[in-house]
Design goal:
Layout: H1 18-24, E1 28-32, E2 43-44, E3 47-48, H2 64-68, H3 81-91, E4 95-101, H4 128-137, E5 141-147, H5 163-186, E6 192-196, H6 201-204, H7 207-220, E7 225-226, E8 271-274, H8 294-306, E9 310-315, H9 325-341, E10 348-349, E11 359-364, E12 370-374, E13 382-386, E14 391-398, E15 407-411, E16 414-418, E17 428-436, H10 437-444
Parallel strand pairs: 1-4, 1-9, 4-5, 5-6, 6-7, 8-9
Antiparallel strand pairs: 2-3, 10-11, 11-12, 12-17, 13-16, 14-17, 15-16
Helix pairs in contact: 3-4, 3-9, 5-7, 8-9
The chain binds the ligand C[C@@H]1N[C@@H](c2cn(-c3ccccc3)nn2)[C@H](O)[C@@H]1O.
The ligand C[C@@H]1N[C@@H](c2cn(-c3ccccc3)nn2)[C@H](O)[C@@H]1O binds at residues 33, 52, 54-55, 196, 199, 255, 273, 281.
């Protein structure tokens, strides 16, 4: 039996409302990390700084005062939210999460509660408002990223050791609530909030506040989607409360990692957020290590959807507001694939087929069709398909060409579908129309 909790999960099971059903259907999302850190782009005094570019302020090599002075250089003359939204639309993006304030405390909106905003920069204009309008105009829902941890605010504390720490942190919690109220009031079409920077002891000790804050925000904006990274329970547990129940509308632990098995998902709603290079979210002039190709990204996308999750790809615009070539190309290549194969991703989820080595199955919630997203083509070009009980394959076609592919029965429920030969640039998707056995008998008569 469960431990009595006042500030643990208040709901058992997933949300059943239409806003959350809409969230589940997104499939593909875009994350954008943009702020002062994009100006140095991972370098300081001409030298590369190790670690994530958006964390450079916390590097020993950087004087925080000097970092904060970057505000006088924020003048993104190439910032064009209409072009940003069009690139996202052409990529096939259904929702976007945009950094309003990262850990450095710099606000991309004209906050009344801070002197460290775009209004105190040469730019002197709201960045968020035209962004929300441009993306909404393209039919893309907007989610706002907000870091609770705020290195610039003198009232931020990592740990509450003394009475004065608690007095300062109480001011900080009020400041946080005020800024979030601003964001939901200034940008009323916001569909959700993506919280970060909640791993420190001070926040783990603020379970009651985090619970009251979430309830306040949802009262202010009914239907708002908030992941599990905001909350702590009164015992300092995060994501899952002391009774192992998820606090939040979806599991927000999947940062740069994808569940190995469906079992690991534990039936929760979830999304994976992913960087193109290794661990860099903000613009870094030097991408070291592995940079993912569009096929690798499409595989991650299909993998997530096959396990009932969404996949969110991060972009890090430069300090001037332009995107780097690699990201522009990736958005185009992904968009070309989504234009042909989107029905295997949008409003799709886990199928009732057993996973095979050649790739991932997804099942559309609208068409009821099952899709085979093929990455690892066998040397035989023969794809094993184990058809679930009392179902039969009525048709098997290549998406795009609509080419009917040969289906060969092996034995029992095991079949082969033969892929046409030839080298493919991007993953192939086969659309399976299934019917139940008895339906098939009717058809056979
Ligand atoms: C979405 C991503 N989350 C931020 C992050 C999270 N972490 C982090 C810090 C401590 C433990 C685990 C993860 N470090 N950076 C990154 O800066 C980016 O914003």
């Amino acid at each position: 039996d469960s431990i009595p909790l006042r500030h643990g999960a208040h709901r058992i099971g997933n949300r059943t409302d239409s806003d959350m059903a809409h969230w589940r259907d997104y499939g593909l999302g875009q994350f954008i990390h943009w702020g002062l850190y994009a100006i140095p782009g991972g370098f300081w005094h001409g030298q590369p700084v190790n670690g994530a570019a958006e964390w450079i302020r916390s590097s020993k090599k950087v004087d925080p005062k000097e970092y904060d002075a970057l505000i006088s250089q924020f003048n993104p003359v190439k910032y064009d939210p209409v072009a940003w939204a069009l690139m996202a639309k052409n990529m096939g993006t259904k929702y976007v999460t945009f950094t309003t304030k990262h850990h450095d405390g710099f606000c991309l909106w004209p906050s009344k509660y801070s002197d460290f905003t775009i209004m105190q920069s040469p730019w002197k204009k709201d960045i968020i408002k035209p962004f929300v309008e441009a993306y909404n105009k393209q039919g893309i829902d907007v989610y706002l990223y907000f870091s609770i941890m705020d290195w610039h605010n003198p009232d931020w504390r990592y740990e509450l050791k003394t009475k004065s720490d608690s007095v300062a942190f109480d001011r900080f919690k009020e400041f946080t609530k005020n800024q979030l109220t601003e964001l939901l009031t200034l940008y009323p079409t916001t569909k959700g909030l993506w919280f970060d920077g909640t791993w420190d002891k001070s926040w783990k000790a603020s379970g009651a506040f985090s619970d009251e804050l979430e309830q306040y925000l949802k009262k202010l904006r009914p239907g708002l989607v908030i992941g599990s990274r905001l909350r702590a329970d009164e015992k300092g547990n995060r994501h899952l409360d002391a009774n192992g129940r998820l606090m939040g509308d979806y599991h927000q632990v999947w940062e740069r990692k994808i569940p190995e098995t469906i079992a690991e998902v534990k039936g929760y709603d979830w999304e994976c957020v992913m960087t193109v290079p290794e661990n860099q979210w903000g613009y870094n002039a030097r991408w070291s290590g592995h940079v993912k190709s569009s096929s690798e990204i499409i595989e991650m996308l299909a993998n997530c959807v096959s396990k009932g999750g969404n996949f969110v790809l991060n972009f890090g615009p430069k300090g001037d507001g332009s995107f780097r070539e690699e990201e522009i190309r990736l958005a185009k290549e992904i968009g070309n694939w989504m234009a042909v194969n989107g029905e295997a991703i949008y409003a799709a989820g886990q199928s009732d087929f057993r996973k095979e080595d050649w790739g991932y199955y997804t099942k559309s919630k609208t068409s009821g069709k099952t899709y085979m997203v093929v990455f690892n083509t066998p040397v035989t070009n023969m794809l094993k398909v184990n058809i679930p009980k009392n179902q039969k394959i009525a048709s098997q076609k290549l998406l795009g060409s609509k080419q009917v592919l040969p289906l060969e029965h092996i034995e029992g429920r095991m079949h082969y579908i033969r892929l046409p030969g030839g080298v493919r640039q991007q993953p192939a998707v086969i659309e399976l129309q299934l019917i139940s056995d008895d339906q098939k008998k009717e058809l056979d008569v």
